[in-house]
Amino acid sequence: MIRRVAVTGGTHGNELTGVYLVKKWQQNPELVQRESFETLTLHTNPEAIKACRRYIDRDLNRSFATADLENPPNHYEAKRACELNALLGPKGAEQTAVDFILDLHSTTANMGLSLVVSSDSPLTWEAVRYLCAKVPELKVYRWRGDEEDAFVDSIAPNGFAIEVGPVPQGVLRSDLFMKTEALVYHLLDFFERRNSGEAVPETAQKVTVYDHVGLIDYPRDANGDLDGMVHEARQDQDFTLIKQGDPLFRKLDGTVIRYEGEEPLYTLFINEAAYYEKGFAMTLARKITL
Ligand SMILES: [Zn+2]
Question: Three-state DSSP class for 129?
Fold first, then answer.
């Protein structure tokens, strides 16, 4: 049984889709209420929302590593991460306050409607399979970093993030707002049907997944400053294949840097504004069926 679900927005304070969906639901809670479980809606980073910035001191969506929760650094997001862990987790516990966290994000990249999934839990993937059947345009990116998963949704045993784009930081777009909203209702309906013991026959048996392979940084000079940009032929080509020799970057002097990898892979999160500081221009993924 799913007893309690959290739908969170504003983890990045300048991603307004989630900020205003949560506001809408707090004004109209019946929209996210279902008979068999409780839905909690919540702004995770209120100070960043007020400032319309991604974060105040540190990216909140990288602040849920166990070591940071046990011994928090002295800044706003670390403190907030501990509060959220107490409210929704605690991370790794047998009994957590919520069973599932859906964290709402937007991206400046042309990612369409997509899920970022880092959990391996069977319930998480059952929900992914259901949503893929309900919403054919939905894409699934499985993130696997080298370090412990420190995302907001990692403090519950099940969950994922929605990423929707392209939408600039600090901007609301009604088309992507409504698509995100509809996806959330599908997920809540899935939990309701599952709780009732009803068979959910339309749940897909197999899903196409873009499985994380690696990151590519921009061309940079000796000081680490940008020395080029995403090539015009690669811009907006999220979820498309890149092959050896395809143009990747255009340097400031006009020269073209080409993709050298031997394996054709898919490019995602191309030219996302928030990742300039993180040192990557796009992610690479392998298309697989799960
Ligand atoms: Zn975000």
Answer: helix
Averaged pLDDT, 155-177: 98
Quick one: angle between helices 174-195 and 16-27, nearest 10?
60
C-alpha 221 to ligand 1 mean position (Å):
28
Indicate whether 194 and 257 sit together in one domain. Answer: no
Q: State the distance from the centre of ligand 1 to the C-alpha of 32, rounded, in angstroms.
A: 22
Q: How many CA atoms lie within 13 A of 211 on its CB side?
A: 8
220 and 182, same domain (yes or no)? no
pLDDT at 146: 81
pLDDT of 11 above 90: yes
Measured in angstroms, how far is the CA atom of residue 35 from the centroid of ligand 1? Answer: 30
Does position 200 have pLDDT exceeding 90, yes or no?
A: no
Full domain range(s) for residue 284: 212-289
pTM for the structure as a whole: 0.96
Residues 181, 282, single domain; the answer is no
Which conformational region is residue 124 in: left (phi greater than 0), alpha (psi within -120 to 50 degrees), or beta? alpha
CA of 246 to the centre of ligand 1 (A): 29
CA 199 to ligand 1 centroid distance, Å: 34
Together in a domain, 61 and 135: yes
Domain count, the chain: 2
50 and 144 in a single domain? The answer is yes
Cis peptide before 90 (omega within 30 of 0): yes
Ligand 1 centre distance from Cα of residue 12 (Å): 5
What's the CATH code of the domain at 101? 3.40.630.10
| C-alpha 200 – ligand 1 centre gap (Å) | 31
For 84-108, how does the pLDDT look when each residue is reduced to its tens digit (9 = 90+)? 999 999 999 999 999 999 999 999 9
Q: How many A from CA of 245 to the centre of ligand 1?
A: 31
pLDDT score at 73: 94
